[in-house]
Amino acid sequence: MSDVVITDAERTALVSIVVRGMARGEASAEQQALAEAGLLLIKGPMMMPTPAGTAFVGEILCLPADAPERERIMATFHRFLPVNRQLRDLCTAWQVRPDGSVNDHSDEGYDADIRDRLDDIDDAVAPLLKRFAEDIPRMSGYRARLTESLEKLDDGDDAWLASPLIDSYHTVWMHLHQELLLTIGMSRKEDEELEERLVSGAGA
Fold it and tell me: Which pLDDT does position 203 carry in this prediction?
């Protein structure tokens, strides 16, 4: 993909869609150009990256193996994955109660307990976000986005915890996770295997 030439604005648009996985709405001029270059697929109001587009962004974002910050980022990433597991478990509990029934949010005590756990997770990830941003400045905006979703959740809209249709806490977290994987050049399969080893105590 190194022979593909795109503008800075097109690059920004492509990175955003690859990190998000998809986008909705009327295609911008940049997105139309990316589609013409075979990097983006547009179907009606839906836009998603092609495999070539994803690979291109991987080339753009992936740190060289000898980058001086790579070791620090990987060390922070190893601390991030166990917290990532905690969030995934929490989102499951938010949607499904321990007896397997759907959580209809009628039990205020149950939901309040999950909200308290979310605060613990947010506290745990805060210093990791700071470290990531120090080594990857473009990622500095994730802290504010997560905080905004928490504030909207506390305003009474339960969708801001895990809805995939908005920038809920879980959605923003997934964007963060995807951008980290692109930066370190790790596949989802490798990521899941590493997370399991770290959570189980088997080490890296």
Answer: 65
Burial class from Cβ neighbours inside 10 Å (0-12, 13-18, 19+) for residue 73 reads buried
CA 91, CA 96: separation in Å to the nearest integer? 9
The whole-angstrom separation of Cα 199 and Cα 196 is 5
Separation between Cα atoms, residue 58 and residue 164, nearest integer Å: 23
Residue 149 Cα distances to 43, 59, 174, 198, angstroms: 29, 30, 13, 28
For tokens 């473009």, what's the residue?
138
Dihedral angle of Cα 182, 19, 14, 190, to the nearest 10 degrees:
30
- SS3 state of residue 62: coil
**Residue that is written with structure tokens 């478990």 in the block:** 89
pLDDT at 4: 78
Q: What three-state secondary structure class fits 25? A: coil
Mean pLDDT, consecutive 10-residue segments, the chain of 204 residues? 80 95 92 95 95 94 94 97 97 94 92 95 98 95 97 93 94 97 95 95 69
